[in-house]
């Protein structure tokens, strides 16, 4: 047979579009042409494949070889197509039965010896192969990751010769059995380890229950970072679909092995991070920190120290739950449904209103410091809390607070009520949902409007205040929002937050 078609997968963002590797042998002077918009690394596969075939004991056809990677308008890069190209040449030259390759998809880079090397982004390809009803052939180093797609038949090999024996029928490979190597989840830090800070713990409970964004403000050493690191342990566990989505993102970003799967991500970028590092980018778009925090928590410490332009790019994903990276030839969409937790000092030195009088910042310096954060960005943060300094006694006999497990149980119950009522968390309620599920009595509505006017809150901030009140009612197991819930929600909004 002079024509063979091998199924493979490209990698575009966190998606794995299908690619057909077509190998055709024709009479003429020996040559090898590779078409289908290949990048440099794909073009170089010709030499890798030739050496791998010869060093594996096969004949490399001395004919005119044409390799087409279809669809032709989809850019292809990386060494992920090496294996498919080699198998296509062997099938087209009748050294392997072409019909045995119809029901599989192949990914893998070839060494010159014919050994298989791992590639990135295997999990999205595994999920797509499962949806297509085909088995997936991968290097053994990628097999555990591919096995996360339950129900998928994974064939793992270390060398091209192993696959040749399988497809020839002389030495069939057994389907790979998952070893559970990527399912070791370290425990989250416990909330009970935080001394005092009852108001901040209450804010964490509310944020976790309604999926609200949270801003801690306070002097250094008050436990803002300590509190933020406890939030993932309060959130409900990921379901299988969410866990696979998170794992696929980290697979694309080459963060293997996936040590924390299936835990919620907790990302803490440094304040010197650039815009592309935060939102993603590059000539070949890669996910940034907001995508790596998808279905988890993004913690921004020292918030005003981030470049203002970098922070402003958070506004769109905070509303939409995704980010679109536009390039001249294409647009790549990355998911970014994260929960933002930020921390900041009240002034440049951090000791504004300190009882000891340590602050030496002028009003102008404080104003410039706070002006680094725009009103529209602050409007998108539902809960604003000042974290006060606790006792500095190392032996303070503070009562032990609730541990993460007991708080997580309250969060889970509140979220179940939200899912039964509206099918989503309170933080992502749209305007019709807000009107339907956050209706107030006439007197409470008037009271709230007066409070918003007095605090100079924008309409967006007022809507978010209602969502927080809805979460407080859910925590109290009440269907109706009362004035007490509105009053507590107002305590989490600063005045003049902006527009």
UniProtKB/TrEMBL annotation:
**Keywords assigned by UniProt, alphabetized:** ATP-binding, Nucleotide-binding
A Pfam family in this protein? ChlI
Is the keyword Coiled coil in the record?
no
- SUPFAM superfamilies in the cross-refs: P-loop containing nucleoside triphosphate hydrolases, Ribosomal protein S5 domain 2-like
What is the protein name given in its UniProt record?
Answer: Competence protein ComM
Domain MCM C-terminal AAA(+) ATPase: from-to ranges: 286-387
Q: What is the lineage of its organism?
A: Bacteria, Pseudomonadati, Pseudomonadota, Gammaproteobacteria, Pseudomonadales
Q: Which organism is it from?
A: Zestomonas carbonaria
Family that this chain belongs to: Belongs to the Mg-chelatase subunits D/I family. ComM subfamily.
The reply to whether Transferase figures as a keyword in the UniProt entry is: no
Q: Which residues, by range, are in coiled-coil regions?
A: none
Per its UniProt entry, which superkingdom is the organism in?
Bacteria
Single GO MF descriptor: DNA binding
